[in-house]
Amino acid sequence: MRELSLVVDAKVALGEGPSWDSARQCVYWVDILGKNLHIYDLKTQTDRAVSVPEYITSVVPSTPGEVIVTLQHGFYRLDIQTGRLEVIRTVEEDMEGNRFNDGKCDPAGRLWAGTMAIDETRFQGNLYRMGRDKSVVKMMSGVSISNGLAWSPDATVMYYVDTPTREVVAYDYQLDSGSLENPRVVVRIPEDAGFPDGMTIDAEGMLWVAHWGGGRISRWDPVEGKLLEEVPIPASRVTSCVFAGENLNELYITTARNGLDEETLRQEPDAGGLFRLITDVKGSPTVRFELG
Ligand code: CA
User: Fold this and answer.
1) Could you report the per-residue pLDDT of 189-216, keeping only the tens digit for each?
2) How many Å lie between the centroid of ligand 1 and the Cα of residue 271?
């Protein structure tokens, strides 16, 4: 039995990029187009928003009171009490039509984040990796909509989604160097199931994929390439998910309203909300980013 509930009826434009801060017991998530960081406190079951001056596309926990976020063209420290931003590194400042998209830390604490063309022109994006020493390396180019990062529990495989391809691609991963080798497609999302967006992984090494335009989360065995389970979500634009909670068995799921017509919005009143699915598996922990 899976128990699904709407925990924040936020009706945001484009909910995205959730991460789990075990120290503060809260889920961070963003509304990219609404330019807000959201902080959902599991203890008080309340959500608050911190406004930022530009697109905010991903968030990871850092030192106490601080998160690391990607804004349109860079990595920033954000003080969650005062809202104060401090730039760490910028990328693609000369590419006004691009913005960052999803981002996440690898098990060694490097922050990976990719970019996309705002108008979704294909192959304009890149995938970057920032070390704790603030060094930024371009790891892939010619990406369309960079999404869906996850690492296997033993950190020997990285999984990646470039949304329009409808594929999850696995790479052999060298944790000590952060390098990628031997790409192969491990999951193909069928055309009638929308597009793969954000994803996470559980302690058994199974992927949980959000379906943009597919109204569901799917669980996959990436070794066998086998669909294990589908969980319908009452919002067609499901964007990402992360495991959270004391037992790491609560899957928090972000959704979007952006681009839906009035009739669809009437049918999906909870679109743009934050959902929680109680699962019977343990998830992977969110890795925080700390400057070295
Ligand atoms: Ca996304």
Assistant:
1) 999 999 999 999 999 999 999 999 999 9
2) 15
User: Where do the domains of the chain lie?
Assistant: 3-278
Look at the pTM and tell me if it is higher than 0.70: yes
Ligand 1 center from residue 262 Cα (angstroms): 23
pLDDT in tens, 223-237: 999 999 999 999 999
**3-278 fold:** Neuraminidase (2.120.10)
Instruction: Write out the DSSP string of the chain.
Output: --EEEEEE----SBEEEEEEETTTTEEEEEETTTTEEEEEETTTTEEEEEE-SS-EEEEEE-STTEEEEEETTEEEEEETTT--EEEEEE--TT-TTEEEEEEEE-TTS-EEEEEEETT--TT-EEEEEE-TT--EEEEEEEESBEEEEEE-TTSSEEEEEEGGGTEEEEEEEETTTTEEEEEEEEEE--GGG-EEEEEEEBTTS-EEEEEETTTEEEEEETTTTEEEEEEE-SSSBEEEEEEESTTS-EEEEEEB-TT--HHHHHH-TTTT-EEEEE-SS-BPPPPP----
CA of 224 to the centre of ligand 1 (A): 25
Over pLDDT 90: what percentage of the chain?
A: 99
Output the CA 16–ligand 1 centroid distance in Å.
Answer: 6
- Tens-place pLDDT, residues 112-125: 999 999 999 999 99
Q: Find the mean pLDDT for residues 57-71.
A: 97
Q: For residue 101, report the distance from its CA to the centre of ligand 1, in Å.
A: 6
* pLDDT exceeds cutoff 70 at 1: no
